[in-house]
Structure formats: structure tokens, C-alpha cells
Write a structure and sequence with these properties.
The complex is a heterodimer. Chain A is built from 4 helices and no strands. Chain A has helices at about 5-15, 40-55, 60-65, 70-79. The longest helix of chain A is centred in the N-terminal third of the chain and has 15 residues, at about 5-15. Chain A is globular and about 25 Å long. Chain B is of the alpha/beta class. Chain B contains 23 helices and 17 strands. An 8-stranded mixed sheet of chain B has the order 15-16-14-13-12-11-10-17, sandwiched between helices. Classes of the chains: A mainly alpha, B alpha/beta. The interface of A and B includes residues 16, 44, 47 and 58 of A.
Amino acid sequence: MERAEIFEKLNEVFRDVFDDESITVGEDTTAKDVEGWDSLRHITLLAAIEDEFDIEFSMGQTVSMKNVGEMVDFIQEEL
Amino acid sequence: MMDELHYPIDSKLLLRKKAKIKKQLLEQEGLIEKRIAVLGGSTTNEVVDQLELFLLDYGIKPEFYQSEYAQYWQDAVFGTEELDAFKPDVIYIHTGWRNITAFPNTSDDKQTVDSLLDEQYNHFLTMWEKIAERYGCPVIQNNFDRPSYRLLGNSDVSDYRGRTNFISRLNQLFYQYAQTHSGFYINDIDYLAACYGLDAWSNPLFWNMYKYSLCLDAIPLLSKSVADIIKSIYGKNKKVLVLDLDNTLWGGVVGDSGVEGIQIGPEVPMGQVYSEFQEYVKALKSIGVLLAVNSKNDEENALAGLNHPNGALKPDDFVSIKANWDNKDRNMLQIAQELNLGVDSFVFADDNPAEREIIKHSGLGVSVPEMNRVENYIRVLDHGGYFEVTSLSSDDLARVKMYQANQQRTRLEQSVGNYEDFLKSLNMKAVIRPFEPIYMQRIAQLTNKSNQFNLTTLRCSEGDIQHMAESPDYLCLYGKLEDKFGDNGVVSVISGERKGNELHMRLWLMSCRVLKRGMEDAMLDSLVSDAAALGITDIIGYYYPTPKNNMVREFYSRMGFEKTEEDADGNTVWRLSTADYKPKNPAIEITR
């Protein structure tokens, strides 16, 4: 899957999880940039992403994600 | 009612769109508010978020207290200022096997393991006793799920040193406590984990990453289970299962193939599966569920089908049979009227998706499970949690008989021309007395179940009822009614708080199955005479409107009270002078 396509799908997930239609994420987006992205919401977010792409992140991936760009790297690894 | 919140629940959607779903659910009217304290031995945030959705769907608007991470025991045993001020209506203790602090060692002898078991049990017992003393509210306690690995392999379950064995013994002790303490309910996560699949349920990533004791996707299932218990405690269980006939209770169409042609009975697989379903439905009667038929059929054919020798269900098992060609939503309303029950306490089982859609969109509030494959019928009804059992009072067990007696009364009423004569011919006998311990459970249940003939809709736990019964400031009466067709059990509850010479009515309710029998007159006669004996000059009645209690809006007026106040929301206050009261003496023989 192309990176752009992954971002497109990711935006949908973010919009659902944070209940905000205006969210658009990019390579450098981090938790600080999205209102409500706290540690609890992060869990829901990861579960929704796993569901969307039909993948499962390992614990190693989960602890090392620093921004959305790295998230996309891991998604590509798992696809 | 939202489909994704009903079996089979859509966990992924509930997790992903919870914010949006919550907003929609909050738009409903007539929600009752409850304060739920969730005391966790692991992370509880998602548990609470999902629990909120399920409770809202059941018409309960929760406010939550959450213990700090894993502080369940400390909060319960020592209390916190915040929890004390919160005054929980219900406490849910979310613990699992990881909260067991010590397990047997392989070198332990039997005695050592026994004392270890006592120690672990006492840890919980102390907590439950403290909660009972400090809060006196219903408690929901998880049992233990199985551990995610078995050191002793298959022997783990049978050897006294195995963790699985130890946990199952601890669970048994929990169940014994539940059996001997009312208001204490086990949330069976051992079963939930088995249904979900233990490996997936106990995915260690969620414990190690987030300190969730189960995987995220299973949390909605857990929360639904807790919500089922809570809604059952507060009288929001469904009461009636309304069934279609053709391809629901038997295979085939009785009107086409005749009674010989339908599939029911052990001879062939399709007959077998319908037999099993009929037996399940019949068993529902034994937990107090009322059964009715709503089917497009000629009545003659319907009855012939129900009299099939291989069927477990017979026409007598149903409190109402509507087999005709009317629309099913119309039949549904007629059944509700006959039984004097809200149609929103109905569950409708029909194999035909078109009929299900009609009922779903009729706005009646009937639950419509997805009965789309006969082999799954039992599971769909069972996992739906519609009839969650939290107490099986003898009244529940006798309910079906009572409704059948009601049908006999209706027949008598139609045969006796004059209503007064009809009442006399019933030979009614009532017992009207202060609250007594053997009826506390039933009284509390009535305060939670009665919606229509309920002036104040004050919902009470057994503890609340006991408090009223023991307090010198309260005048409490229950009323039990029987007649020649049967015993209705406790059907009316009133309780007033004494303030000087006035008695302020906090509870006044009656079961609708004894409407128009003079029982309300008998209750008031007794109340006034008891109040006057205590030197009370005035009885002050309160009516608080809800979407369901319109039938008693003018109740006090009919009983001779005078209205003294009314606010913009329709809340009214009424006064009755005990000195001027003329007893109504209904045709009931009363024992005090």
C-alpha cells in the first residue's frame, strides 16, 4: 500500500477516535498536535488502526513509535 | 436502542466511535441517574467508557467514581473522602487472577495451600464486609478468569498445587458468599473469557503495556455483562418473550403443510433443533419470563402447531396468543394492554427479517434480537442478557401462574355484569402490615420495577428499605393480595416520613396487575388509621411525573387529597387531613 493511501485511511481513523472531522495527520504529527491524544486515547487509537489495516502491532513497535510517520513505517512492515 | 450494543456486539465499532455513540445515546429522554463506583485491580478507563454506553442504552445515566490504579482494596477498606461523598448506588470490583497476591508452590503440602486459600479469600471478605458496613449498596464482584498459562499442564486444574485448581476453589468461596448475601452479585468473567477465547482475552501485551487485565477488544463484552447486572438490579430486565411460530418455534409453515408436516421432535435434525429451542423457551418460564405468541396464522392452525405431541410448549404456556393477520406491531400493543405491561419490556423473536425490521422501527422500544439461524436462536437470546437473573424471588417464580389467574379473572369479569359484584365474587383477602424482613427483597424489587402506578419513582436498595423499616421516623406498609384464583403476593408499598404532625409520602406504588380491585383504597384506609394513631394530622402526597406514570397523575385527587402545589415540570404536592377521612372499605377482607 502506498504511503499516501495509508495516510488517507489513518486520517479516517483519527477522525473517528477523536470525534473531530477536521484532523489531518502528517509524517511529523505527534500526540502534542492532536487535542485529546493522551495515553488512554492512544490505546483506543492503536486498536482502531490495527482493525483498519487488519494487522497487530508487536509490543516492541508499540513502545517505540515516536510520531505518525513511524506509525506508518510499522504499518507497512506488518502489511 | 442501538444495534451495535446488542448481541452480537460490534466491539471494534464501540471502541472506535464511542464518543459519537455516547452523544447519540445522551439524546434519549427519561434516563434514570445512578452513581457507579468502579474499583479496579487493573486499569479501568475503557471498562468505564464502555459501561457508560451500555448503561445509557438501558436507560441509565451513570456517574462514575474510579479508584486510582489498582487501589480497589484500599478504597473499599479504608474509604476515601471522595468515595464517601460520592455515595455510590452500586460498587463494581474489577479484579482478576493477577490480583491474587500469592499462589501455591509445588513444594507446599495440602494444609499450607488450604491456609493460603483462606488468606486470599479473607482479603476479599474483609473488603466486602467493609463495603457493606460503610456503603450498604449492591456490590458486583468479578470472579477469577483462568490464568494465561498452566505450569502443571493438564494437572494444573486437578492438583491442589495448580494455579487453575487454586483459582477454582477461590471462585467457589466467592459463590458461597454470593449465595448467602443478598445485594452481592458475581460478574462471571471466567465464562466471558471462555466465550471470547482465553488466549485472546488474556493477550499479555495489554497487561504489560497498559495494565489492562484483558485485551481491549474484549472490554465491551465485559462492560455489557456488568451493565446487564446493573439494569437487572434496577428493574430494567425484559419481562415478556413474544414469539413468532412458523420457522421460529417449528420448521415449516403449519398453514401450508398441516400439523403433520411441521418439523419438531427428535426424528430429524431440523426437528431436533426446534425441539431444543422450545425446551429453552419453556425453561425461560421458570425464571419468570412471560411467553406470548404474535404470529401471522389462522388461530386454529397456530393452536394445532402448539399442540404437536413432540413440542415442549403447549398453548397453556403462553399468557397471550395472537394468531391472526393483523400487523405485528398492533398485536404487540394489544398484548401489552392485556398484560398491563409496558411494550418496552418485550423481546420479539421472529425468523423473518422483514417482520423484525417493522418492530424495530415501530418506535415501541421492543428488543428485536437477530434470530436468523435456528441453530443460533438459543445463543442469541441467551447472550442478549434480556432476562438477566439477579434475584429469583418466589414472586418471580410464581409470576406466570399469576398472569394466568389474571386471565381467569378477566373471563369472570366478562361473565358478571356488574363490576361491584365481580369484585365481591373474587373473595379478596389482603394482608397490610409494616415492612417485614421476609418481604424486604420483594419490596426493594417492586420499587425498582414499578413504573406506571408509582407516584414518586423512588428506587430503593434492600438496605434503603431496611433503613426505613427500622427508623422510627418512617411509617411503612406493604400490601399482599390474594383472591379465589390465586395469591398475587406483595403488590403495594407505601412509606412516609414523619415530620411533626405531618407524614410526607416518599414511596407509593402498586403493581399494575391488581389495578381497579380496591387495593389502593385498602392501603389508604390502613395508612390513615395508622397515621392517626400516631397523632399525625396531615398526609402529604407527592407526584413526580415520568414518561411512564401518567396513569397516577390525578391519583391523590381521586383519593380525596387536595392539591397544594404544582410546579412548571408538573410535580405536584397534595394534602389529606386524617381527621376528615372517611374509610373507603373496599370489598377486601383485611388482616393487619
